[in-house]
């Protein structure tokens, strides 16, 4: 059988509780990997957290992290970086609006302002107990010195929709960074002209696996681009309506092993 490129979002799609992949899903994916298909998790999480989810599936499972800014290929990692101009713009805007911004390399979180307790809790919400994340508070003036490793970031506006909307407007006007959101209280900061779809297209080109043999699962707005790059696009039962409208297929929810059920039927396992 010609190999497929199988790509799954994590939260609300592959994972059942943000930290674990169910045993039935692991079993199906391991079977397909053993048959020669390639499997990637695709998430907004930093690389080290995405890698933890992939390892739950298989040591041969691979990673698209940071909303497409970094991904595995050929035994190494491909990186797209936010860049110094984007970092400087984000600092300027968040200083003006008072929201907290966090910046990510593959294994380190950087921040410049003291976080509120709510924000600090959110920083570690998806971190498993067995994964160590370096967290560094640095002076704002030093942020750009890490521009050669920072791939992405996010801004939190918990209980502050007005501040979040203003921040989004100002960043969009500056046009230095690609903006997305994984839920209603954040802004995802991604390198310009990069998203999960970018990684999918680059992997299709590098692997020689066509869109017709690409299967993508997703549930949120930041999955829509990569769903449109797949010949087999699958919305979870718990997906937002816009995702269901874009996807060619629909499966059950993440809590009902939707990824495993679709793949079992599709490959006649």
UniProtKB/TrEMBL annotation:
<dbReference type="GO" id="GO:0016791">
    <property type="term" value="F:phosphatase activity"/>
</dbReference>
<dbReference type="InterPro" id="IPR000150">
    <property type="entry name" value="Cof"/>
</dbReference>
<dbReference type="GO" id="GO:0000287">
    <property type="term" value="F:magnesium ion binding"/>
</dbReference>
<dbReference type="InterPro" id="IPR023214">
    <property type="entry name" value="HAD_sf"/>
</dbReference>
<protein>
    <submittedName>
        <fullName>Hydrolase of the HAD superfamily protein</fullName>
    </submittedName>
</protein>
<dbReference type="InterPro" id="IPR006379">
    <property type="entry name" value="HAD-SF_hydro_IIB"/>
</dbReference>
<dbReference type="InterPro" id="IPR036412">
    <property type="entry name" value="HAD-like_sf"/>
</dbReference>
<dbReference type="Pfam" id="PF08282">
    <property type="entry name" value="Hydrolase_3"/>
</dbReference>
<dbReference type="GO" id="GO:0005829">
    <property type="term" value="C:cytosol"/>
</dbReference>
<keyword id="KW-0378">Hydrolase</keyword>
């Amino acid at each position: 059988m010609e190999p497929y490129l199988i790509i799954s979002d994590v939260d609300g799609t592959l994972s059942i509780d943000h930290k674990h992949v169910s045993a039935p899903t692991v079993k199906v994916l391991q079977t397909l990997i053993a048959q020669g298909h390639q499997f990637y998790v695709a998430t907004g999480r930093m690389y080290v957290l995405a890698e933890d989810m992939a390892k739950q599936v298989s040591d041969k499972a691979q990673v698209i992290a940071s909303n497409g800014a970094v991904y595995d290929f050929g035994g190494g990692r491909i990186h797209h970086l936010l860049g110094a101009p984007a970092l400087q713009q984000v600092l300027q805007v968040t200083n003006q609006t008072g929201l907290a911004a966090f910046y990510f390399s593959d294994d380190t979180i950087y921040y410049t302002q003291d976080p509120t307790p709510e924000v600090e809790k959110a920083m570690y919400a998806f971190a498993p107990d067995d994964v160590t994340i370096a967290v560094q508070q640095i002076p704002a003036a030093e942020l750009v010195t890490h521009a050669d490793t920072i791939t992405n970031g996010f801004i939190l506006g918990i209980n502050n929709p007005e501040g979040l909307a203003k921040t989004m407007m100002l960043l969009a006007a500056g046009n230095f960074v690609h903006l997305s959101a994984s839920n209603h209280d954040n802004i995802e900061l991604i390198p310009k002209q990069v998203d999960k779809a970018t990684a999918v297209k680059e992997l299709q080109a590098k692997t020689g696996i066509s869109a017709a043999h690409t299967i993508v699962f997703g549930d949120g707005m930041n999955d829509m681009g990569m769903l449109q790059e797949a010949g087999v696009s699958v919305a979870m039962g718990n997906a937002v309506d816009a995702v269901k409208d874009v996807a060619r297929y629909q499966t059950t929810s993440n809590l009902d092993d939707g990824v495993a059920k679709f793949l079992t039927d599709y490959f006649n396992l």
